[in-house]
Structure formats: C-alpha cells, structure tokens
Amino acid sequence: MKGSAKISLLFQLSLLLLSVAATSSGAAFDFPGKVGAWPCPPEDELVPCTCYADDDLNLFLGCQELESISDLKAVFTASFQFKKFFRLQINDCNFTEGTLTKDIFEGFTFREVIMFNNKLNEVEVGIFSDSVQDLTFFEFSDPIPSFPLSNLESFKELRELVVDINCDQFPTLTSDSVLSFSLHCGGTNVTMETSQLNMNALTTLHLHDSNLISIGPENFESQSLNILTLNGNYLEEFDPEVLKFSSLLKLDLSDNLLTDMPFITGMAPKGTVRIADNKNLKQLSLDTTMPLLDADVTIHAEGVSLSCDCNLRWLLDTDGTDLLINKITVNVDCEHEEDFSDIRDILDKFC
Ligand SMILES: *[C@@H]1O[C@H](CO)[C@@H](O)[C@H](O)[C@H]1NC(C)=O
Ligand SMILES: *[C@@H]1O[C@H](CO)[C@@H](O)[C@H](O)[C@H]1NC(C)=O
Asked: How much is the pLDDT for 338?
C-alpha cells in the first residue's frame, strides 16, 4: 500500500524560558480596598460606579454596565474631593450613541486606565489629556476606527499600551516612553509601514492576529526589541531589509502564509524563531535558514510539512542518519521512507 509516511523529527529542543510580556488582563475589578472609604465621594453619588481606597490611599474607580455616555458624565460631576486616581476601569457599558468626549475627564488624573467592551464608536481627540504626566498603563478595546490616544507622544510616563480597535489603517505612533505595545486591528486587512512606528524605547511588540498583509519597507533595528509577535496574520513574504533587529530574543511568525524562511538578522544568541503552522511552507532555504542556526537560534516549525524534494538535501547530514540541523521540529513528506538514510539515498540519486 502506498501511503505518505510522515516522519516526525523531534530533535533536542533547546528549551528557552522567555519572560512573556505580562499584560494586565483587564478582567475583573477586584481591589482589596475599602469600598467608598475616605477620600472617595459618598457612595450614593457614584452609583452604579464604585470607588475604592487602599491602605496607601490609592483610589480606584470602576464603572460597569452604564447605559449611556451621559450616565458616565453624571458620575464625573459628583463631588470628588480629590481627583487624582490610581486606576479607572470602565467596561461592559452601552456607549453606542455619541462620542466619548474629553471634557468628561477634565481635571481628573489616572495612572492606569482600562476600558473594554463599551460598544464605543468614537473617542474625542485629546481624551485623558489631563493625565499626560501620570498615565503609565492604558488598555482599550472597542471597534473604533482610529487610535484612542491621539496625542500619544505627550504621555511621558506611559509604559504599557494594549489596544484592540478596528484600524482602517495602521496608525502612525510616536512615543519615547512605551516599553510594551500590543495592537490588534480587527476588520479590514492592514498594511504596516515600519516608519509609522516611532517608539524608541520599545522592547515588546505584539502585532499578532491583526489582519496584517504586509510590513515594510524599513527594518526594526531602531527599536531595541526583545520580543516581536506577528503570528496569526496574512504575511506571505518579507523584503530582506525588514526583519533586521538589534538583539531579538523571540520572533513569532507562526500561522501566516509564508512559503519559505524569510531573511532574518540580528537575533540574540539562544533566541527563538517560530514558523509553526505555516501551511504553505514547503521548503527552508539554506541561505536564510543556515545563518540562524549558525547564530544558535532555535527554530520551531511544528505543523510544517516540507516537501520531499531537492530542497531537503542540505538539511540531511552526509551519512544520512540525522538532520544536519538539530533544533527544528518539522515534518517531511516522503513516500514510504521512514529512515533518513533512505531519504538521503533518494535525494542523492535525483538531486
Ligand atoms: C444600547 O443603547 C442603544 C441606544 O440607546 C439601544 O438602542 C440598545 O438597545 C442598547 N443595547 C443594549 C444591549 O442595551
Ligand atoms: C485579507 O487577506 C487575506 C489574504 O490575502 C484574504 O484571504 C482575506 O480574504 C482578506 N480579508 C479581507 C477582509 O479582505
């Protein structure tokens, strides 16, 4: 019986423990503080929002299930004795009608702002501008078409940014302070110009599952990135100039439309490149793959099946008992053959 014998080659995987960027999940509003305690305003003036104060007098304000933007406005006109908050969280409200205007938060400052699932359609330019010296963390998720912090550059203390919107196009963003940026663009397919990302301090960039169809034309060298995730997009190929880094530890290109290993330089020693689950990936070219292996980079290619052809030849060592490379997990689609020496014999005959 003729069948395609899939040989699973699992070789000495160097396990690398990477500190994956820990993004605060804006899930639950759960603070150990005292509800309504001084210096919060009287509880009944804030309903249905809640104010908490912790032992260090950090103030937390949470609003859930408000029915309109005017309800939110009403809360912020309550008699707040102090307007310097540690965290504001607004989620699961119905803000379908109208625009979230900047006057609502005028005079208030926040160190952290978390907003998600509020059915927002529009955010006014200049929102949270009274917090430019305070805001360190901003998380936003709603299908608005443009970036919520329009004057991003002026937020001097902002370190972490997690944004999930309906980008019409990749936004042009400038910041000298942001260390970690996660952008998810829902909706239409997006083209990213690397020149649109002017974030000098950036070490972690998550652009996975973001409908990206191309990235270019410049490279990422100007950022000192440690982690770049581009998995779950529609990327087919990269210009050889684009995937150039200064010292990248982790690059995730899995679940895209790649047909070959792209040209990648500037990986840190012991770095990892994930090209798993690229269904169109049938070959790993010597000239793009070998330099990575020479630089001690681990390649993860689970769910990739290389075709049984002459491109495979360089991957097998001369006596045909092993893969020349020892850090790839990959399938090879060769009829019948279950042994590398047999595959080697076939390739030696035809290639
Ligand atoms: C949200 O508000 C809009 C407009 O006020 C209303 O038509 C809609 O029914 C509301 N949706 C929910 C789920 O309450
Ligand atoms: C986005 O691009 C991919 C790949 O080119 C295509 O299959 C998909 O249909 C496109 N989606 C939209 C919404 O245009």
From this structure: 66
